Each structure stands twice: as structure tokens, then as C-alpha cells.
Amino acid sequence: MKIIFTWWNKQTFGTFLKTLFTGKFVGRDEMGNKYYKNKRDERWVIYSGNIEATKITSDWFLWMHHTTDKIPVDKDVKKYKWQKKHLENQTGSMNSFKPVKIKKNNLKKKYESWK
């Protein structure tokens, strides 16, 4: 019942029917999102949990937007030591970025004002 009446819970009823009748499962990312496509090369994602577009990793983003036709596989993804693990947008959460406030008397001018 939740799928029929709530669009914010993973997928809409229309997406459910489209996936059921024409969708071919392509893969899953480390966040748990499932990716599908059909014969006309339409591509879509079924999110794990709440719908949040920033949950899509960069390699799957390229595939979703037809930038590349190669389906990302975890083994193919080369990660460097300096790369961080993908996170969804943290705005509005406890983990959001909060810049350090600089007090006015601690500012040093790069110039001298005219007298």
C-alpha cells in the first residue's frame, strides 16, 4: 500500500509497473540503489530508502546520463588513497559543513586605508 500512495518511498506506482514489465536489472551500487534499463535504452534508478538524487555515485551518474555505456562494476572502479567514500548531500543534517566564524578584531587587512 505504501508504494501506491507515497511517491517519496523508493518509487512511484508507475515506476513500479515500468520496472515490472519492461525493466531489465543492470546493477547495484554500494549505497544499495538498483539500476534498470529497457529496450529503448531508457535508464532509471530505484533508490534504497528515501529518494535523494545525490545518492547516485559518480560512475553510475555517468551511465544514467548516457555519458558512457559501460556499466560500472565495483572491481573496475579504481580508487586512490586520497579519494573519500561517496556520501549523499549532507545539507540540513547534523553532518553539514559549518564554517568557522572569524571575529572582526582577528582580521588582518591586506591594505592600509587612507587617512
What does this structure look like?
This protein has 115 residues and is of the alpha+beta class. The termini are far apart. The protein has a domain at 2-79. It is built from three helices and three strands. The longest helix is centred in the first third of the chain and has 10 residues, at 13-22. The mean pLDDT is 82. A three-stranded antiparallel sheet has the order 1-2-3, with no helix packed on it.
Produce the secondary structure layout:
Layout: H1 2-5, H2 13-22, E1 24-28, E2 34-37, E3 43-46, H3 58-64
Antiparallel strand pairs: 1-2, 2-3
Q: State the helix count.
A: 3
Order of helices and strands: HHEEEH
**Mean pLDDT over all positions:** 82
Overall helicity: 10-25%
- Ranges with pLDDT <50 over ≥5 residues? none
Major sheet: 3 strands, antiparallel
Radius of gyration: 22 Å
Shape: elongated
Question: What class would the helix/strand composition place it in?
Answer: alpha+beta
Strand content: 5-15%
Distance N terminus to C terminus? 74 Å
The counted number of beta strands is 3
Neighbour order of strands in the largest sheet: 1-2-3
